[in-house]
Write a structure and sequence with these properties.
It catalyses: 7,8-dihydroneopterin 3'-triphosphate + H2O = 6-carboxy-5,6,7,8-tetrahydropterin + triphosphate + acetaldehyde + 2 H(+). It is an enzyme of class 4 (lyase). Keywords: Lyase, Metal-binding, Queuosine biosynthesis, Zinc. This protein is of the alpha+beta class and 119 residues long. The chain has one domain: 2-Layer Sandwich (Tetrahydropterin Synthase, Chain A), CATH 3.30.479. The chain contains two helices and five strands; from the N terminus they run E-E-H-E-H-E-E. The chain starts with a strand and ends with a strand. The relative contact order is 0.22.
């Protein structure tokens, strides 16, 4: 089995209304996103074409989240809830005969991130 990943970035604002602290106020982040698929190479020798992966992520996720106010899209947009939302937006489009979505990682800051593997 192979794990194939591609990284992306998007900018967005949010506030954590159920959190009591600094992040309760409106603020923004440059998020980093890693999408990973697991599978075996197809007849072309690839698990997935990186261009195809980029196109799907841009259409299903980045087009919606980049430069947005996340609270209008995702309830209580913590890194955990953002990762789960991204998984839900991608799972169907990233399921092929030879591979499927394996995990989504969302970095809220350079050193704080969450990994989601469905479920």
């Amino acid at each position: 089995m192979y794990l194939i990943s591609r990284d992306f970035k998007f900018d967005a604002a949010h506030k954590l209304e159920k959190y009591h602290g600094k992040c309760e106020a409106l603020h923004g982040h440059t998020y980093k996103l890693r999408v990973t698929l697991i599978g075996i190479p197809n007849e072309e020798g690839m698990v997935v074409d990186f261009v195809q992966l980029k196109t799907i992520v841009q259409e299903k996720v980045l087009k919606v989240l980049d430069h947005s106010y996340l609270n209008e899209i995702i309830p209580q947009p913590t890194a955990e809830n953002i990762a789960k939302w991204i998984w839900q937006m991608l799972e169907e489009s990233l399921t092929f005969s030879n591979c499927k979505l394996y995990e989504v990682i969302v970095w809220e800051t350079e050193d704080c991130f969450v990994t989601y593997r469905g479920g």
